[in-house]
Amino acid sequence: MTTIIDGKAVAKKVNAAIQIAVAQLVEQGVQPGIAVIIVGEDPASKIYVRNKNRKAEKLGMHSVVRQLPATTTQAELLAIIAEYNADKSIHGILVQSPLPEQINEPLITMAIDPKKDVDGFHPTNVGKLITNFPGKYPVANTPRGIMTMLHEYGINPAGKTAVVIGRSTIVGKPMAALLTNANATVTVAHSRTKHLKALAKTADILVVATGIPHLIDGNDIKLGATVIDVGMDRDENGKLVGDVDFDSAQEVAGFITPVPGGVGPMTIATLMQTTVELAKWSDLGE
Ligand SMILES: Nc1nc(=O)c2c([nH]1)NC[C@@H]1CN(c3ccc(C(=O)N[C@@H](CCC(=O)O)C(=O)O)cc3)C=[N+]21
User: Fold this and answer.
1) Residue 44: pLDDT band by 50, 70, 90 thresholds?
2) Which amino acids bring their CB within 6 angstroms of ligand 1?
3) What is the mean pLDDT of residues 246-275?
4) Tell me, which fold does domain 139-262 have in CATH?
5) Which parts of the sequence belong to the Tetrahydrofolate dehydrogenase/cyclohydrolase catalytic domain (predicted)?
6) Is 20 a residue whose pLDDT tops 90?
7) Are 163 and 200 in contact (CB under 8 A)?
8) For a FRET experiment, which of 48, 224, 230, 259 has its CA 20 to 30 Å from that of 217?
9) Mean per-residue pLDDT, 243-269
10) How far apart are CA 140 and CA 86, in angstroms?
11) What is the ipTM of this complex?
12) What's the 160 CA to ligand 1 centre distance in angstroms?
């Protein structure tokens, strides 16, 4: 029997806790604030930013969306980041990707104050994650949300074999670090990995984050494994599908996340959680 990991339900639970935490913070004179900067008119990005904004406001947070033209220069974007770095009402800054080609994305990531780095992408915060540094710092929200789901379903990575397919800065690498810090034995696979499917089949915990629709199916999964699908792909009919073929995978997996309704809602909930934490750490010194 397979358990479908209900990301929407876990996100609801996280959001309920956030709403209470925000109300308490507001009572103490601190309203957590997030600024989302979006460059250009990509319709998918705009919808996604609007959803984040709506969620933040619903939870009682201060939320700013800064829409910039596609022609925005590197210098202009840096100036706006500097503005939010100095703005006491903003605790988290998110620069929505993708960015137009005239923008140097790594330099933008570096320009955000690490204490306001709500994505957890700044090298200072990535370095802390890799070194399992003590203390409080933001961690990339998608992998962190996945760890929350594993915890909610009683799946302890310690001693387990984990395979992460995908080596991005946003998902694969921080996912591998979190699983390693949680005492899993982790292999990071990618487009150049030989015998990828055979490797996938060794995993007790399989995380797939490639952007290749239905790369993995039931034949590539160990009986009873936990399968986490980070993919958000479109099939030929424009329907949202994952990197895992859900129908065949669920015949084999012990636990599996659906798309939609798995990792996606947890990413947003964790983003809000991180914003609240940044506000606490900076304004209350917690
Ligand atoms: N700096 C930055 N940080 C990000 O975190 C970031 C970004 N840029 N650029 C774009 C991607 C995309 N992303 C999503 C997260 C959740 C859903 C989500 O909630 N998806 C729902 C439904 C989606 C639908 O039905 O279309 C689900 O999976 O159930 C979608 C997309 C965060 N991103």
Assistant:
1) confident
2) 48, 94-97, 119, 141, 232, 240, 259-261, 264-265, 267-268
3) 98
4) Rossmann fold (3.40.50)
5) 5-119
6) yes
7) yes
8) 48
9) 98
10) 23
11) 0.96
12) 28
Query: Which residues lie below 8 Å from residue 139, measured CB to CB, with a gap of 6+?
Result: 120, 125, 129, 174, 178, 274
Mean pLDDT of the chain: 97
The residues of the chain that CATH labels 3.40.50.720 are: 139-262
Which one from 115, 117, 119, 273 is the annotated catalytic residue? Answer: 119
Q: What is the pLDDT of residue 197?
A: 98
Taking the C-alpha atoms of residue 155 and residue 136, their distance in angstroms, rounded to an integer, is 24
For ligand 1, the distance from its centroid to the CA atom of residue 191, given in whole angstroms, is 23
Q: How sure is the predictor about 43, in pLDDT bands with cuts at 50, 70 and 90?
A: confident
Q: Is 166 within any annotated ligand binding site?
A: yes
Q: DSSP code of 35?
A: E
Tokens representing 172 are 């694969």
pLDDT of residue 1: 87
